[in-house]
Amino acid sequence: MRCPRCQHPESRVVDSRDVDNAIRRRRECLNCGARFTTYERIEPAVVYVVKRDGRREPFSREKLLRGIQRACEKRPLATETLEALADEVEAKVQQLGPEVSSQTIGELVMERLKELDEIAYIRFASVYRQFKDLESLKAELEELEQARQRRRLRQSQPTLFPLEDLGSGRAVSSAPQPRPARR
Hints:
This protein is an alpha+beta fold. 43% of the residues lie in helices and 20% in strands. It folds into two domains: 31 residues, no CATH class; 109 residues. The longest helix has 23 residues.
């Protein structure tokens, strides 16, 4: 690792720590004594995005994040939330394989934005889906409102059937269970 001050090729590692998806290393130049920080990250395999017109370009997390930030501008969402959303979408894109359509990426972003902030969702959807007129935008808004009403209804109503305990596969009920008969 070259020293950023004197360009000397040798340094020693003073400290190493795990941070997020990387290893942070504090280094000291063996020539001039300057200290600097480096980060090691796994370089994911190149995934290509297939655009609507058939062009292919390498996936860019920065481009994804810029689009998310634009949709969320002046919305009450923390930068960390937007970074986490970009991380989540990037991880999913990596899982999907060597080529992923821009449509798939857009759908992944919209799915999460719909849960996070409805206004940011509509902003992103208006660019991504390229609404041609007010009617298509109105239809999207109505669909969003119906989804919100279904969510509220699910939250306000008790479950009719027992929920499945995902860990064991057995039914779990909030009702008291009968005790076994004594002998």
